[in-house]
Amino acid sequence: GASDDAVSCAVMLEILNTLSKSPEPLQHAVIFLFNGAEENILQASHGFITQHEWAKSIRAFVNLEAAGVGGKELVFQTGPENPWLVQAYVSAAKHPFASVVAQEVFQSGVIPADTDFRIYRDFGNVPGIDLAFIENGYIYHTKYDTSDRILTDSIQRAGDNILGVLKYLATSDKLAKSFEYRHGNVVFFDILGLFVLAYPARVGTIMNCITATIGFLYLSKKVLQPKGRAIHNLKKLLTAFGLTLLSWVCTLVVALTVAVFVSIIGRSLSWYTHFYVSVFLYGTAAAAKLILVHTLAKKFFYKNMNEQYLGDTFFDASLMIWSIVLAIVTQMGLCSAFICLLWVAFPLLTKLMIHKEFSQKGATMKFVTMYMLGMFVPYVYMMYLSWTVFEMFTPIMGRKILPDAVLTGFIVVITVILSSYFINFVYLVKSTKTTLITLTTVFVVTLVLVCSGIFFPYSSDAANPKPKRVFLQHTSRRFHDLDGNVIKSDSGIWINGFDYNGISHITPHVPEINDSIRTPCEEQAPFCGLPWILPVHFMFRLVKNWYLPAPEIFPRNPIHFKVLSKELMPWNSVRLSFEVSGPSHMSLYVQPHQGSTLSTWSLGDGVPVASVGGDYFVFYSHGLQAMPWHFWVELMAPEEHSDGIVSLAIAAHYFFGEDQKSPQLHALLERLPNWTFSSGWSSTYDLFVF
């Protein structure tokens, strides 16, 4: 908990101390909100923004988050709209680290995470800035996330940035009339942490359109000159265009084939502790395949053709691809189109400046030097962005399905981008034999080492741990039929390996945890008949679950579930009312039967929202003292339904106190190897049919 979120609380306290002693008057008030229950599905922030008397006076917020332990704090969400907020960060942050790419990736839902930012935005209609530490996500939310691992430099850096932004906002004339400056999105990105470039999205759209148009005009001119050869030139350009796309597809297929093979033989995540392994394995495979396709094309398809002409044509083919991508991404309204802009504008300028050298025989040192200088900006920025992507996403891969395939996809995309304007050198140089042999040798040696198991995925190294996450619940389950009779009951320790490797590395240490105790999904029960604490079961359907038989648990505070009434409503609806009491954390799962529809309920705004997979999930929590929970659900159902209209399950989670860990669970946790990080608690699961 040091990074998420004690360090941010420390920064807030220090800023509060600094501001309170500052002689500068503040034009606007600043609220310091230390809210809990963020991991409890964002409840406290919701309580504040919807119920506190100060909430309606708020015009902007800065949310301090963490997705890693220390390092730089990344601005990964802003707005919605309100470009003046981004301008505040641009003007006031001393050590900027911000990217609209991160914002669009996060808000796309690709990363299974959420922050209080969404609550303030959606329920308070307040714009803001979301910042998060992203370094060393391997130990995020583990016992290793301790204060000694967060460098003073990180705290100072965050404090400098946030204090500067707060002072700027608290003395801004725009804050009081923020609604006047609301409209429009912003393209923003930092340049190597030195400064931020930011401009309105509408300006970005104009720049993108102009650049793409210039690119197409340049290509059109090239095709039409000399006169009489337009059809021939167009055919050559389209052939190069097609070959370039083909080389990218072949590269992706080969690299993914390697990734799937490595996963099938049980060597997935070999790079998790040693990241260089992924570059030596998948990066070399991608680069070698890319070069090989073009080498073969040069040798057999373009036999005896002028090398300079081929190099020039393939440069134009890459320019054509990037111009098309720029036009498409701009049309989609994505601010991240600025990346495509860089890959059209700078190469085009480079080509125009050294077009004479392009026609000279051989790749001279002068030509290569000028070419590299012209490409310097997009290449340096792309490598900087790639570092940020890998810094943030590699640790997350330890919580993903098919992580090798996903990481390989990232590596192939970056390889393709970085090589797009260098693949023409394959046609300019005499031979690529040495390069191909070197890349192939590195790939083969790495593959052999990976297959041998020399690269163990996890690490318990005290200085730099990279643990495997394991979740265990000692649970007792009861399944009832339509008449309320228990038709099935069992007790066991449900084990979720949380990554693609499952428990394969744990079995040698704890032999009874093996594939003989794998448990299938109970398809007729909500959420597979397992007491999920969050609605993420869909992420793990491909990942195996294990269920180790264990004695029944008898919590001191058992759940009490009571049907209060069953009412026939208009339009063939049935309303079922319930009363529930139990521990502080409970999960409710609702699964309408085929032909039935959950039309409304007493929760939220009354409109049920299904989770991925079609079941409905409700997370319920309360303080130490609470009245019983009353709620109702209403279903549309056909008149005849012999097997009931809905399955409803309730799970109780015992996160603390005497009921948290049974003796059996405690003993099992003690036996897990030291390179694991385990979370364990007790739970019950009761299924009813109505």
From TrEMBL:
<keyword id="KW-0479">Metal-binding</keyword>
<feature type="transmembrane region" description="Helical">
    <location>
        <begin position="191"/>
        <end position="219"/>
    </location>
</feature>
<comment type="similarity">
    <text>Belongs to the peptidase M28 family.</text>
</comment>
<keyword id="KW-0325">Glycoprotein</keyword>
<dbReference type="InterPro" id="IPR053974">
    <property type="entry name" value="ERMP1_1-A_TM"/>
</dbReference>
<dbReference type="GO" id="GO:0005789">
    <property type="term" value="C:endoplasmic reticulum membrane"/>
</dbReference>
<protein>
    <recommendedName>
        <fullName>Endoplasmic reticulum metallopeptidase 1</fullName>
    </recommendedName>
</protein>
<keyword id="KW-1133">Transmembrane helix</keyword>
<keyword id="KW-0862">Zinc</keyword>
<feature type="transmembrane region" description="Helical">
    <location>
        <begin position="240"/>
        <end position="265"/>
    </location>
</feature>
<feature type="transmembrane region" description="Helical">
    <location>
        <begin position="367"/>
        <end position="387"/>
    </location>
</feature>
<keyword id="KW-0256">Endoplasmic reticulum</keyword>
<dbReference type="Pfam" id="PF22248">
    <property type="entry name" value="ERMP1_C"/>
</dbReference>
<dbReference type="Pfam" id="PF22249">
    <property type="entry name" value="ERMP1-TM"/>
</dbReference>
<keyword id="KW-0378">Hydrolase</keyword>
<dbReference type="GO" id="GO:0046872">
    <property type="term" value="F:metal ion binding"/>
</dbReference>
<feature type="domain" description="Endoplasmic reticulum metallopeptidase 1-like C-terminal">
    <location>
        <begin position="465"/>
        <end position="688"/>
    </location>
</feature>
<dbReference type="InterPro" id="IPR045175">
    <property type="entry name" value="M28_fam"/>
</dbReference>
<feature type="transmembrane region" description="Helical">
    <location>
        <begin position="436"/>
        <end position="458"/>
    </location>
</feature>
<dbReference type="GO" id="GO:0006508">
    <property type="term" value="P:proteolysis"/>
</dbReference>
<dbReference type="InterPro" id="IPR007484">
    <property type="entry name" value="Peptidase_M28"/>
</dbReference>
<keyword id="KW-0812">Transmembrane</keyword>
<feature type="transmembrane region" description="Helical">
    <location>
        <begin position="407"/>
        <end position="429"/>
    </location>
</feature>
<dbReference type="InterPro" id="IPR053973">
    <property type="entry name" value="ERMP1-like_C"/>
</dbReference>
<dbReference type="InterPro" id="IPR048024">
    <property type="entry name" value="Fxna-like_M28_dom"/>
</dbReference>
<keyword id="KW-0645">Protease</keyword>
<feature type="domain" description="Endoplasmic reticulum metallopeptidase 1/1-A TM">
    <location>
        <begin position="234"/>
        <end position="451"/>
    </location>
</feature>
<dbReference type="GO" id="GO:0008235">
    <property type="term" value="F:metalloexopeptidase activity"/>
</dbReference>
<keyword id="KW-0472">Membrane</keyword>
<dbReference type="Pfam" id="PF04389">
    <property type="entry name" value="Peptidase_M28"/>
</dbReference>
<feature type="domain" description="Peptidase M28">
    <location>
        <begin position="1"/>
        <end position="164"/>
    </location>
</feature>
<feature type="transmembrane region" description="Helical">
    <location>
        <begin position="271"/>
        <end position="297"/>
    </location>
</feature>
<keyword id="KW-0482">Metalloprotease</keyword>
